[in-house]
Amino acid sequence: MSSGGPGLLDCRFCYPPEPWRIIRSTLNFNVQMGLGPLAEGYALILSKRHFSCCAELPQSDIAEFENLVRTVRQAQINLYGKSLMFEHGRSGACLPPGSGEDLCYHAHLHFLPAAINLADSISSDFPAAIFDTWQEVCSRYALTGRPYLLAEKGRGIVYAETPDRIRSRYLRRIAAAALDKPELEDWVAFPSYSVVKAGRDKMAMELNRLIKGSVQDGTAASPESRAV
Questions:
Q1: CA-CA distance, 40 to 37, in Å (whole number)?
Q2: What's the whole-model pTM score?
Q3: How far apart are CA 113 and CA 185, in angstroms?
Q4: pLDDT digits (tens, 9 = 90+) for 60-113
Q5: Number of domains into which the chain is organized
Q6: Phi then psi for 12, rounded to 5 degrees?
Q7: Within a domain: 203
């Protein structure tokens, strides 16, 4: 499927079945509370257009994307004291078993308010590199086009290219086990709507506060941003 293409009528991210989970919308992205939260406040940044992974985002979207990354991370830290960023890239590991490639055409970055280490698990299973910026991630992907996994570690991003298909929910499985909640690997079976809603109310309020503050002090990078 071509990147940046038009929406599909059966795409759950082009036409969200639960729009109440979207807590912030900018020109090119939505911030959405994730189903099956491994911890309250679990959120995603999703591209509105079809891109295979975050590393494929066009250069014109990167400043907007990075601004959202900083803001979502800060909101989680303010509320929960921690924030972990990770992505399954285009490895297919984010998809439920049996769904093939039909559900996940939108680049999406996960934010989990938990103090766990996913980067070392990636490095132990696949040859990995550490990058300092998203631009480095994008440059690497532009060279190879390979599926990948990534997770932040300190101030860096651990990035590993993977085989075309790896275990479904690879990073969710590791995170759920690390949090002693292995059953929550399966977000379809355990959507946990009460936790989603509790996190939504807090994250929406904190994002709104942070973005209003950045507008007032002149540091806002995305004037199209709006609360939902």
A1: 6
A2: 0.87
A3: 16
A4: 999 999 999 999 999 999 999 999 999 998 765 454 544 444 445 789 999 999
A5: 1
A6: -70, -15
A7: yes
